[in-house]
Amino acid sequence: MASVDAVAVGQSGLLIGADRVRHGRLHQAGRRLRRRPGALAGAVVILFFVAVALLAPVIAPADPNEISRDRRAAPSADHLFGTDDLGRDVLSRVIYGARVSLRVGLVSIGIALTVGSLLGVVAGYTGGRLDSVVMRVMDVMLAFPGILLAIAIVAILGPSLFNVMIAVGIEAIPVYTRTARASTLTVKELEYVIGARALGCAHARIIFRHVLPNIVAPLIVLATIGVAGSILTAAGLSYLGLGAQPPTAEWGAMLSTARNFLRDSWWMATFPGLAIMLVVLALNLFGDGLRDILDPRLRD
């Protein structure tokens, strides 16, 4: 009985110790983030746009697709950001556009991160012919400019917001595959992975329990910056008419409409353009700070 109690006490002590370690790491990460004003400012801007996207139905002053007679009205007390060529409130469309742009960025990078990481880990861990085939396919994809590859995919699938998510996700897969493979080549030679193989652990168990958790840091940093790139690519596709279709409120589509009225209706392009710039800049600043925090070579 005493031995059972001792084991229980030991296990509870280990759990408490693990909780303290995790809390300590989170505290250190928060402290490093506070030391980087650029990353902190980026995080604040990102949280602001996320809140705007989530609260769009509450804070938007009007229905984003409501047409009125006040066409191309300049910014005023009634319409803070003015109206577009159909009399729709630009502020409401920018607010709802945050929902669309952030969703496209997160979903597309989620696709790229999941598929690319698995391909890279399996290729790097397995090696041999499979590694060669996977990397040659990635090299072929990287030979095409990203925007052109995305345009080709959307042209095949058809113009829609869903197809833009797929196209941008596929276009970004090679970057995550190469990063995951490079990290896996290093991790698989470490002692605990070699020991797991020597003990006869299944390859899938080794990959998911010993390799993936130890290569996730660079992938998270890459994904954070990648969301910014995917938002830009999606906006470019919508600008070309291949992404969000009318009357969906999306920043790139709003810019596409505004290009015909730049001389006398500057607000139609200015506000969605500023939204894109702020989100992309914030994601890049936060991604750079996250890299400094997670990379042990750059820690204070």
UniProtKB/TrEMBL annotation:
GO biological process terms, semicolon-separated: transmembrane transport
Main localization (coarse): membrane
Keyword check for Cell membrane: yes
Topology of this chain in the membrane: Multi-pass membrane protein
Any one cellular-component term (Gene Ontology): plasma membrane
PROSITE patterns in the cross-refs: ABC_TM1
Source organism, top-level taxon: Bacteria
Stretches of the chain forming a coiled coil according to its record: none
Family listed: Belongs to the binding-protein-dependent transport system permease family.
Name recorded for this polypeptide: Dipeptide transport system permease protein DppC
Taxonomic path: Bacteria, Pseudomonadati, Thermomicrobiota, Thermomicrobia, Thermomicrobiales
